[in-house]
Design goal:
four-stranded mixed β-sheet
Length: about 230
Amino acid sequence: MRGIAISPSNQCCSSPLQFQTQDTLPSQPYRAVNLNPLLQFNKKKKQNPSNGRRYPLVSKISINPSNNNNNTQTPIPPLVVFGSANADIYLEINRLPKVGETISANSGQTLAGGKGANQAACGGRLSYPTYFLGQIGDDAHGKLISEALQNGGVCLDYLNTVTEAPTGHAVVMLQPDGQNSIIIVGGANMNCWPHSLPDQDFEVVRNAGIVLLQREIPDSVNIQVAKVRTF
């Protein structure tokens, strides 16, 4: 099935990539992913790692469980998520500060998130061939996101790292009653995009079974991707 889904909301409300991963279908127990940014960085720098998962643009599985040699093969086009990735800085507070006031948070942590990265993580968690295309900065937040996605089984061969902008991030202030207030810094999600996307990105999109967009990157980029799927 081919399709494209675009979230109609322009609100930037990210959720962290608090997920577990598995290398097989649910018959195997989940493996927890450590998202502590102080613990998950590789000592050896590796740009855009994909954990060895460079999926073919069209993969195949057998739909005939019999053991004969005439099994029918059907193509399974991958899921392609083209969009945003954020580092979410979570602060648990009793109340919002007043103007000019400084208050202390009860706790705080930084987690990988962003609507696009979250969508890709879901595909990877289901052991489905999943590509994430987007932009991160060459910084600690970028490493946090790429390693979380890599550990989730997402292919990052087409994730772009830029040096002119920081990784997108958000400050999320959580109150005891469950209400939250969020401040978004677009960073690489909203800046440093080429005027025209490279052909290799278009090729991945053309061969996708489903393409997901979130409106957290420039509309001009979303339009280019949507046109590839339309014409």
